[in-house]
Predict the structure of ATP synthase subunit b.
Amino acid sequence: MKKLILPALFALAASPAAAASGPFFSLKNTDFIVTLGFITFLAVLVYFKVPGMLAGLLDKRAEGIQSDLDEARKLREEAQSLLASYERKQREVREQADRIIAHARQEAELAAEQAKADIQHSIARRLQAAESQLASAEASAIREVRDRAAAVAIAAARKVVAGEMTADRAGQLIDSAIAEVGAKLH
């Protein structure tokens, strides 16, 4: 507190109201009083080590700014390394996706070729089955036509034989059939 009283007294003594015009080194000359007040003010600042404190504050501020710059530089380097890492990972993922797509295309082509082969085998089997069904139907139709022809021939022969057969001729045929059976049995 005592340190503050002395500068206050000097400030009051060096006020413009106390100054007047006249010789320079007189307490009545304003310029001298202002110069003396300014020198006293500077002396008080030096006495209280204000320039050292200001230099210390400026140094602390400069150190803080430098540490902020260093931290920002480190953060920038970390960000660049992270960016490079992510870009590398993105390239790897893109390459892996390209490999997966290529592999899927190959599998799709193989599956398509396999499906074509399966369809061709299926068509061949169906054609063979159809041909066998046609052959079977043809054989069945031929057999049916033969049976029908035989039935028609038997019916026609029956009519012809019945129309030409007389009682004497029927008796002769029966006698010859009995003789033939008897000969074959004995």
Notes: Residues 25-113 form one domain. Residues 116 and 122 are 10 Å apart (CA to CA). The mean pLDDT is 85.
